[in-house]
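User: I've been trying to design a sequence by hand for this structure and keep getting stuck. Would you show me what you'd pick, starting by listing the structure so we're on the same page?

Assistant: Good idea, let's start from the same input. This is the structure you sent:
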């Protein structure tokens, strides 16, 4: 068993925290109502807009990603509203479960886990159910590794209804372009421990002008997650409740890193990492859960083999010092998932893929390791951008 310092964390969140961010977070505490905190909160909120692709305000909310999912739901859904949720994996299901516990009529559009939601399928569902007030989508469905076509889905919704478009971007924001404004997304949320490279505990919510109309007139009781309080506070350059100040220090540094690399190059790197992973697994004869056309740049899911299970592979890799994730919900035991988002660069991935080959060899199901690494290297060689990191 490797010691903690040598373990490579390649799960789709929490993700490794870069040294620069660790250092930034270790600064002495400051008062959350101080001038310095105000400057920090204003700065973070402004710079997060780029990452979301919006000119609307972005609010930091203390809590894990699910707090932001719940904030999106309780603020936009009025008592008795009919809402549609695309359920294509564990996180779509979580959104639906949150809404189910509210006084709302929830229509679940079930999509096979591992497939994308096709716009036609959504169009049919919207035509069947009149008066849908909000549609809840998952951008990257972390449990399957599918990046859903939220742009086309949002367009489909806009053409057919006035429903708000609400997107879970927890495992995509900072790793894939969300383009919130361009795509007509009304509410988008993310969490700190995925592509933003931070420890868990901080979420963010972006809200369009169209969504505010609904939020302002929504009589649903809410307090800690009431976005009207967050808006009022942000106008005073603060947050309604004590924010996790050290995570804010970390987020400012995370934004520095994203800006230095350049957001477009960050997205390209994630594309490259996804492609390296998929080519490597294919070269080893491992079946991917998803098609190339909808594969996420932040996480890859693949099946166990004829002579080995996904969980046997995970256990062997863990022994060798690389942690990967298993399946969730109905995919438990059937798949393994490799996270390649946030603080993950090509050499990190080669280490993980090389370890995966070693593990398969030790399980006695791979006689000649190397094909996977070679395929990954070929992707990297063909697409090297810069060497001056
Ligand atoms: C990680 C994740 C969440 C939030 O999970 P938390 O454990 O509450 O942070 C929500 N949606 C998606 C798509 C995720 O990947």
């Amino acid at each position: 068993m490797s010691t903690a310092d040598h373990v490579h964390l390649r799960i789709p969140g929490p993700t490794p925290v870069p040294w620069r961010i660790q250092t930034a977070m270790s600064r002495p505490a400051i008062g959350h109502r101080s001038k310095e905190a105000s400057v920090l909160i204003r700065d973070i909120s402004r710079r997060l807009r780029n990452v979301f692709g919006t000119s609307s305000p972005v609010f930091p909310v203390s809590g894990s990603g699910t707090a932001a999912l719940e904030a999106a739901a309780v603020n936009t859904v009025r008592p008795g509203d009919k809402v549609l949720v695309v359920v294509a994996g564990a996180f779509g299901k979580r959104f639906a479960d949150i809404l189910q516990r509210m006084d709302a009529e929830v229509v679940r559009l079930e999509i096979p886990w591992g497939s994308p939601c096709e716009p036609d399928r959504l169009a049919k569902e919207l035509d069947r159910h009149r008066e849908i007030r909000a549609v809840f989508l998952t951008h990257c469905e972390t449990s399957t590794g599918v990046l859903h076509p939220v742009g086309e889905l949002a367009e489909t919704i806009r053409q057919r209804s006035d429903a708000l478009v609400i997107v879970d971007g927890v495992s995509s924001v900072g790793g894939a372009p969300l383009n919130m404004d361009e795509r007509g997304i009304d509410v988008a949320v993310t969490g700190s421990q995925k592509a933003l490279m931070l420890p868990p505990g901080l979420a963010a919510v972006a809200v369009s002008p169209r969504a505010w109309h609904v939020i302002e007139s929504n009589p649903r009781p809410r307090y800690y997650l009431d976005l009207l309080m967050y808006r009022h506070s942000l106008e005073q350059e603060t947050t309604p409740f004590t924010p996790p100040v050290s995570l804010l220090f970390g987020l400012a540094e995370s934004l520095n890193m994203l800006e230095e690399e350049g957001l477009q190059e960050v997205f390209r790197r994630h594309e490259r990492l996804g492609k390296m992973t998929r080519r490597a697994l294919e070269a080893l004869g491992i079946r991917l859960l998803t098609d190339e056309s909808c594969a996420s740049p932040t996480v890859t899911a693949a099946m166990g083999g004829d002579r080995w299970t996904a969980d046997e592979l995970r256990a062997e890799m863990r022994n060798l010092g690389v942690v990967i994730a298993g399946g969730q919900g109905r995919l438990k035991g059937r798949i393994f998932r490799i996270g390649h988002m946030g603080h993950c660069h090509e050499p990190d991935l080669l280490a993980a893929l090389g370890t995966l080959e070693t593990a398969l060899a030790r399980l006695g199901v791979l006689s000649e390791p190397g094909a996977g690494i070679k395929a990954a290297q070929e992707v990297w060689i063909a697409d090297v951008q810069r060497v001056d990191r």
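That's my pick for every position. To get oriented when you compare it with your attempt: Residues 13, 64-66, 69, 91, 138, 142, 168, 170-171, 191, 194, 200 surround pyridoxal-5'-phosphate (CB under 6 Å). Residues 94 and 155 are 24 Å apart (CA to CA).
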